[in-house]
Amino acid sequence: MLGLNKKDTSLLILVAALALLAPFILNPFPSGSAMAQFNAGYPDLMQRFVIFGIFAIGFNILFGLTGYLSFGHAAFLGVGSYAAVWMFKLLSMNVVPAIILSVITAGLFALVIGYVSLRRSGIYFSILTLAFAQMTYALAYSVLTPITGGETGLQLALDDPRVLDGAASGDNIPVPGFFGMEMRGSSQLEISDWVFTFSTGYYFSAIIMLLSFYLSIRIFRSPFGMMLRAIKSNQQRLNYTGLNARPYTLAAFVISGMYAGLAGGLMAAMDPLAGAERMFWTASGEVVLMSILGGVGTLIGPVLGAGLIKYMENILSKINSDILHGWFAFLPDGLEDIIVSMIYPFIGKGWHLTLGLMFMLVVIFLPGGLVEAGQRISRLFGRKKSDDKSDKSTSTEPAE
Amino acid sequence: MSNSNLTRRGLLKTSAVAGAGVALPTIFTASSAAAYTNEPTGSTVTLGFNVPQTGPYADEGADELRAYELAVEHLNGGGDGGMMNTFSSKALQGNGILGKKVEYVTGDTQTKSDAARASAKSMIEKDGAIMITGGSSSGVAVAVQALCQEAGVIFMAGLTHSNDTTGKDKRANGFRHFFNSYMSGAALAPVLKANYGSERKAYHLTADYNWGYTTEEAVRSSTEAMGWETVAAVKTPLTQTDFSSYIAPVLQSGADTLVLNHYGGNMVNSLTNAVQFGLRDKQVNGKDFQIIVPLYSRLMARGAGANVKGIFGSTNWHWSLTDEGSKAFVKSFGEKYGFPPSQAAHTTYVQTLLYADACERAGSFQPCAVVEALEDFEFDGLGNGKTLYRGDDHQCFKDVLVVKGKENPTSEFDLLEIVEVTPAEQVTYAPDHPQFAGGALGSCNNGA
Amino acid sequence: MMDAIILQILNGLDKGSAYALIALGLTLIFGTLGVVNFAHGALFMIGAFCAVTLSRIITISHEVVDETRTDFLGNPLKVDVPYVHDWLGKETGDVIIDWAVPLAILFAIPIMILIGVIMERGLIKHFYNRPHADQILVTFGLAIVLQEVIKYFYGANPIPTPAPDAFKGSFDFGAMLGMEANQIIYPYWRLVYFAFAALIIGAVFAFLQFTTFGMVVRAGMADRETVGLLGINIDKRFTIMFGIAAAVAGLAGVMYAPINSPNYHMGMDFLVLSFVVVVVGGMGSLPGAVLAGFLLGILESFASMKEIIDLIPGINQIIIYLVAILILLTRPRGLMGRKGVMED
Known about the structure:
The structure holds 3 protein chains of 3 kinds. By secondary structure, chain A is mainly alpha-helical. Chain A has a domain at 40-278. Chain A is built from 17 helices and 6 strands. The two termini of chain A are 37 Å apart. In chain B, α6 (181-196) packs across α7 (210-225). The longest helix of chain B has 20 residues, at 343-362. By secondary structure, chain C is mainly alpha-helical. Helices cover 69% and strands 7% of the residues of chain C. In chain C, a hairpin with a 5-residue loop joins β1 (61-70) and β2 (76-82). The longest helix of chain C is centred in the N-terminal third of the chain and has 32 residues, at 2-33. At the B-C interface, β7, α8, α9, α10 and α11 of B face α1 and β4 of C.
C-alpha cells in the first residue's frame, strides 16, 4: 500500500498515530498536580518534537545510510530559517512560499558544500563540514549582517513590503499562516482535570513530518538506499566494482541538507525569528546526539531521539531546587536535603551534564540507541516463544 | 498483496472514527473567552523568570534569580519588605498582586535567542505566566520582547544595554528599566573630559555585534563632541578569547586612550591582555595611557581582578549608593544571601516591583491596562533617584553612575567606587534621536 | 609597517604555541592509538584549572575580624588571612602565593598523567577498534561532562590567575633593535610561554628520538601490528603515552592561565582550532602538528591586522577555516603527513 511493504506500513501508521494523538499522549498528568511538571503537551514543545524529528530523519539519511558524519548540518538549518523569514518579509505571510524557498536555498547550499567536502571521507569530511559550518556562523553573525541581522537575528517589522499580501491592518505585525489559518492558533479540550492543547502549527508540521518520514522509508527501501548502504559497508570495494560513489553521496548529502532546510523553514514558520546561533557547530552536535540516542540507521530512531532530547532540554532544565524539595517533602528533613543535593547537579542548569553522561553511556553500551534497547527488551521477552523454532533461517549454508 | 487486515474499508472506517474524535474539541472547546492571555482565574498569579542559567552569563543570571525570589517574597508580604517600604507609590499591600499570591516559574535562556524564546513560550503556554522578565543580553532581550508582543504578555527587560531594545526594536508590551549605550556615553563624556582632558586620541575595540556597535557609536559621538579624536575603531569577533593581536597595534597607532566596547568575558580577556601589554604604564603624546570600559559588570569585573584599578566606566546602580531605597535593598539582599547585590539583581528586582505596582494601580492584569499604567509613570525610592518611565519608548530615565575601579578593594565585591552620579536630565534624549530611530512602538497586545 | 609585521609575528608565535602544544598531544594520541580525541580541549582546560586549584589551596585562609573597617552592611569587616601567612610569615607567604602558577606546573604533571591514564584505561581502550565516528562521539560526550563538572565546582565566570610579579610588564623589543620606544612591546609572560612551549616540544621530541621507550612508541606509530608480533607489549606503553599527551595539554593550560582567565568553556574554544591544526599539519605527523600550529597562529594574527580587515571584512574570523578547507582539498595529507595516508 502506497508502495510500502507491510512492516513499513504499520510503522508509518504507528508514527502517524503517535503524531496525531500527541496532545493526549504528552499530557498524561492532570494540570495542577505535582507531576504536571512533566507534561510536554504544549504547542511550542510539540512543534519542536516534529521539526527536529524532520531534521534528524534527514541527517539519518546521510549518517545512517552512508556513514559520513557531518558536523555542519546546522548551517543548512540556519540557511533555511533565514530564507523563510526573508520570504515572510518580502512576499507574504503564507508559509507555503517560505517553506519552498527554504528547501531550495538549503539544497543549493548543501550542493556547494557537499561538492567540496565530499572529496574527502572519514574524519577529514567531518572536519571540513565543521569548518564550513563555523565559517557560515561567523559570516552570519558579523559579516553579512544586512542579510542576517547579526546577533539580534532576523525579525519581522511592521514596514516590510510583503508584496503578495494586502496592506497590513492595525499596529501589530501579522503572523505566519497557511492560507489564513494562523500557525499559532490553538484550541483546548478540558476533560475534568486534564487539559489538551491542539495547535494548528503543530498539526501542520506533523503532517509535513509524516510526509518526510514516508519519503525516507521509500529512500531506505529503494535501490538508491541500497547503494548508500554499500558505500557505508565498504567504499573501496564499491569503487573496485566500477561504480562511482560520489554522485550517490552527493545526492544523499543534498537530500539531508534539504530536510534540514525544511526543518529550518518550519521553525521560522512557527516562530518568525532566525538567529545565527542556530548555525553554531554544537547545534550540529545536537542532531548527531539525536540520531545516536535514537538509533542510527533505523527509521524511527531519529524521531525518538529528537523527541527525547528536546523533552529533556525543555523539561529537565525547568526543574529547580524548589520543585525538588516539593517532591521529596515527605521524607525527613535530613534525608530530603541529602537526596535533593544528590539530584541537584543533574537537573536545572546542570542538565547538560545529564545529557553528556547519557550520551556517553549510549555510545559505549548501546550504540544502536533506543531502537536497539527496544529490540533487546523485546528479544528478552520474545525469546521464550521462539526457543523451539529452529534457527535454520539464520545459519548460512555454503554455496555450491 | 499480503494478508494484512489493512483493507480500504477498514482504513476508511477507523479514520472516520478518528476524524470525528479529533473534531470533537471544537464542540467541547471551553468557551473560555479569556479577555487576555493567561488571565489568572484562581488565587495565584504566575510570573516567568527567564534568565541565563547556563552559558557565559550564568553568574549574572543566578544573581537575577536571587533578586526575583526576593521580590516575590516581599510582594507576598514576607521578609522585611525591602524597597516596598521606600517606593514612592504605596499601591502594593504585601498581599501579592491584586490579592493573588505571586508564584513563579524559571527558565534557562542559555544566552541564545532560540533557547530563550523556547523557554519563554513554555512559560506562557504551559505554565500560564502572565509576565516574562529577565535576561542578560540584548540580542536575547529583543528576541523575547518580540515574542511577548506577539503572545500578548508583558515583557519587563532585565539586563540589556543596547540602544535597540527601546530604539529600533522597541515594542509596546516591552519595558526597560536598565540604562542604555547612549546614556553611558552621555554620562561618561564630562567625567572623561574632566579627568583626561579634551585632547585625546581614542582607539576603539568593539565587539562585533549589535550591542558593540551601539556602544561604540554612543561613546564616539559623545567624546568627539567634546574634542577627542577617534584614531581607529576595530571590530573584534564575539567568540574571541585572546585579544593580543588586536591590542598589539594600539600603541603604534599613536592613540593614547583605549576604549573597550566589550562586555562580560570579552571585557575580562581584553582588559587583561591590555594590561599585560603594559598599556597602563605607557606614556604617549606626553600623557598617561588610559583605558575606558563603557559598561561595567561587577560580577565580570571579578574575573579581571586587579586589572580594573583606576579604569572608568558606567553602571546602572551600585550597592554603595546611600539613598534610602538602595540601602534597604542592599540590607534585604545582603542579609538573605550574604553578599551585596549586583546591578543585574537591582534592575530585575525593581522591574518586578514596578510591574506589580502597575497592576495594582490599573486594577487588572490586562496588558493594555498595565501598559497605560506604566507609560509616563514617575516614581522614586527605588535606588536611582527620581525616575520617569517614558511612554514614547518605554525606557526609564534616571540617574546614571560613573564608576572607577578601586585602588584598594577590601573584598571581591568592593571593586568599584562611584565617581559621579549623573543626573537624569543630562542623559535624556528626544524620542526621535538618530541613535534610536527606525522602529515603531506599535500598540499593546492583549493576546487571546 | 615593518614593526607592525614583527609584532604580529611575535603574537602569532605566542598564540601558535598553545595550538602547537594541544595539536602535539592530539597527534600523539592519533598517531599511536589511532583514536580521535575530542576531549583534548577539556584536558587543556583541566590543566588551567589545576593552576586555579593550586592558587586556591595555597590561599586557604581563616577569617579574622578587623574592627577598624566595616563591610557593606556596616558590620565589622571579616578579613581573610591565608594560612601560609600564619605558618611561614607574611613575606614568604606572599612569595609563594605570587608564584602559584609556576608551582602549579609541578602540581599539574602528576594529576594530568593520572587523569590521562584513567581516561585511557577506563574509556579509550574500549574504542580502539570502533569506527572513528564513535570515538569522536564518546570523547565529545566526555568533553561535555568534564566541562560541566568544572562549571559545577568553579562557577561560570572566568577566574583571574595572575602571573608572578617578576613577569608582569612588557619587554620593549623596539628599543633593543634600536627603534623608537613603544613601537614593539610584548608582555614578558607571553615570551616565557613561548619559551616554555618550545622546551616541552623539544623534550617530547627528544624523548621519542633518544629513548628506547620512545623508539618503541615510534615503531608502534608506524606499524602497531608488527610491534605486537615482535612480542613487545605495546598496550602499556600506549597508556603511558596517553598520559604524557594529557600532561602536555595540561601544562599548556597551566601556563596559559595568566594569559586568559580560565573558564569552563576554554576547552571547547581551543578544540575546533586544534583539530584544524592537526589536519593541516598532517594527522600522525608530529613535526607537522607543531609547524601547522605556529603557522596558523601567525596567520590568525596577520588576519586581525586592521589593514587586512579593511581589505576583506570578516577575514579574521574565517581565515583559519579557509586555510583548512584549502589544504584539505589540495593536499589532504597535510603539510607533512605521510604520503598515501587518507587520500582517496
